[in-house]
Design brief:
Strand order of the largest sheet: 1-2
Helix content: 25-40%
Number of strands: 4
Number of helices: 5
Structural class: mainly alpha
Distance between the termini: 120 Å
Strand content: under 5%
Radius of gyration: 34 Å
Shape: elongated
Largest sheet: 2 strands, antiparallel
Oligomer: single chain
Length: 271
């Protein structure tokens, strides 16, 4: 057969000269994305903070419930409420002319065995018996650091919503105080009109609460305060040898509060 003169077109090979086309974000688009993220964070942050505070408040409430249960267990064991402040020997010591070492152990000391803090209580217990001065160092401003048991921070005694900073050499703080009644808080005053009184074990039981337990406050939550002008080693809240009367001249005393009371018993704005 004669050779064909038909010519075939060459194979077409795609060209790579221009490279692949890729599209990225422009500067304006990036700024828009960043702005959207910023708005979302601004909207979510308050919600996150509110959720965290709600969790902290729940912890505070649970702490109160735990302490209230401990008070009931103490009453079941000793048939008395724990004392608001206790001197186990229940006597005044003539050698202590200033009185600053009377009644320094609060009701919380007696609750330690009932909130799973028995080892800590056993460290404090030697200071509660014997013939010496059990807490001579507790108002000694020259003491560089607190002894272990008295500076131990216990989570159940603190409300996490209170963010006050406490110095390492200060006494361990608490946000929960007991109902001692309406009497002057002083170790020289042996009278009591509340569920938590003086003494080693207290003097009040359920039967002595005349208004009924449903109508009587047991514990309350307070903000931790700092008494200005008093060395850190002497700030023992309710430690109360001289008691609340140390604040009579301060800005938060009852006299100052009454001074801003209006004629209709409302409080005016204080400076």
């Amino acid at each position: 057969m004669p050779a064909s003169n038909t010519t075939h077109p060459p194979f077409l090979v795609p060209s790579n000269r221009g490279g692949s086309h890729r599209r990225g974000f422009t500067l304006v688009e990036l700024l828009v994305v960043i702005a959207i993220i910023g708005v979302m964070v601004g909207l979510l942050l308050p919600a996150v903070q509110a959720a965290r505070e709600a969790a902290r408040r729940m912890t505070c409430s649970n702490n109160l419930k735990q302490l209230a249960l401990a008070v009931h267990n103490h009453h079941d064991t000793y048939k008395m409420f724990p004392p608001s402040m206790s001197d186990p020997r229940w006597q005044r010591r003539a050698a202590m002319t200033t009185g600053f070492r009377w009644d320094r152990l609060s009701y919380m000391t007696h609750l330690l065995p009932f909130i799973e803090q028995q080892p800590l209580f056993e460290q404090i217990e030697p200071f509660m018996v014997g013939g010496g001065v059990p807490w001579a160092f507790m108002d000694n401003s020259t003491t560089p650091a607190r002894p272990g048991p008295f500076s131990e921070r216990i989570a159940a005694f603190r409300c996490p919503s209170d963010t006050v900073q406490i110095a390492p050499n200060d006494v361990a703080p608490t946000n929960y105080h007991c109902n001692r009644g309406d009497i002057h808080l002083d170790s020289n005053n042996w009278e009591w009109r509340g569920a938590f009184s003086n003494g080693l074990r207290g003097q009040c039981d359920f039967g002595k609460i005349k208004d009924g337990t449903a109508n009587t406050a047991m514990l309350g939550e307070v903000v931790i305060g700092r008494q200005t002008g008093v060395p850190a080693q002497q700030r023992i809240k309710g430690g109360v040898a001289t008691g609340v009367n140390i604040m009579i001249g301060g800005p938060f005393s009852p006299a100052v509060c009454m001074a801003v009371r209006g004629p209709d018993n409302t409080l005016a704005n204080a400076p």
